[in-house]
Amino acid sequence: MNEQSVWAYPWDLHDWGLDAALQIFAARDINTISLATSYHAGKFLSPGNPRRRVYFPQDGTVYYKVEPERWKNSEIKPLQAEIVASEGDYLAKLTRLRDAGGPKISCWTVCMHNTRLGMAHPEHVLRTAHGDSLRYGLCPSSPAARAYVTGVVAEISERYRPDRIELESLDFMEFNHGFHHEKDGLGLLPEDLFLLGVCFCAHCQKRAKSNGVDADAAQEAARRLLDQSFEREIPETQFPDFPATKLNAFSDHPDLFDYLIWRSEPIVSLIRDIRAAAHPDSRILLIDDINSWWRGVDLGATATCCDGIVYCTYTTSQDQILPNLENVRRVIGPKKTLIAGFQLFYPEVSDRANFAARTDAALQVADGCNYYNFGLVPNARLSWLSKNYPEAYD
What crossing angle do the helices spanning 254-262 and 215-231 adopt, rounded to 10°? Predict the structure, then answer.
């Protein structure tokens, strides 16, 4: 059977009522629930939620009962969301239901994207070539950030034994991620956005140098290229073949190029550490997409260290879904789990027929699909999830 899963927030399950939500999932052929287990803040319009139509989640928290004793010697510690105490530990509830024959559980775990932790631990965040901090992202080179993420996965897998754990933002986050009231009067070009997201923090510097990379020269090259862009009256590209040629666009700047190639190392080694620390009963999947190279991901190297990939095709054109997923399958091999990630957002997905065509294409290669998101779309649109239930809602 294909793995048909839906991403869901615990507050949506609470407001619907778990029994009612499970009935909706069963009627839509959903056999796995991807529950937000570690998450960031935001402003969410929730037309599918019967009570909280606009919701601001508590920033940078985890949605399970934390054992403080496990974290007493840790520099960076998880914060248990307040609604776990007030509304319940839905991971525990779903675990009990799973063990009684209910749907499987996947823990949707946001890793490095954590503004609350970034502001509390500025020495462990991403830093630009000019040394400015990007507070919404912890750095995957930081030993403390690595220990935090590895510890969260270990705690979840040991105590709850989910069927799988999905790792989101395990990489170097982009500069244009979407922070509060972002301002850009320059007119940033793709190359500028990319270079502003390349981390040169002390942890990256140390780790790169230990791998034989001249991090100081790389930082100077990135700083110089950005300064040249900042000084122009009107934006003018220095790399006209970027991003089409990806990292190769910077090959004429060998120190920077070497550093950009090196950036995959902290990610690969971290996911290897996570897999080793997690309980063997829980598969470890990396949430990936076609632009993850921008964030330092080497898909082939990473896939050797985990159990599979959730490959998001949110805005991929319909005709590119199958070839993209075929390429991912070639890279990761036939034995790794491959889940295609789809969003139910309009107008990116125009109607039921368009959605069906997209998922049908994916299932020629993928082992299943994961759908985004239970509470963020109208209930009528959830009917798209099953060809056997064309009615809007029952």
Answer: 110
- Percentage, residues of the chain above pLDDT 70: 98
Residue 264 reports pLDDT greater than 60:
yes
DSSP letters spanning 129-150: TT--EEEEEE-TT-HHHHHHHH
For the segment 298-353, what is each residue's pLDDT rounded down to a tens digit? 999 999 999 999 999 999 999 999 999 999 999 999 999 999 999 999 999 999 99
Distance separating alpha carbons of residues 217 and 239, to the nearest angstrom: 19
In DSSP terms, 288 is beta-bridged to: 311
Residue ranges per domain, the chain? 3-172+267-385, 177-262
Is the whole-model pTM more than 0.70?
A: yes
C-beta of residue 130 within 8 angstroms of C-beta of residue 198: no
Contact (Cβ atoms closer than 8 angstroms) between residue 306 and residue 182: no
Measured between alpha carbons, how far is 151 from 256 in angstroms, rounded to an integer?
32
State the CATH architecture for 3-172+267-385. Answer: Alpha-Beta Barrel (3.20)
Q: Which tens digits make up the pLDDT trace of 8-22?
A: 999 999 999 999 999
The strand pair at 61-62 and 32-39 is best described as: antiparallel
- Contact predicate 302/268, CB 8 Å: yes
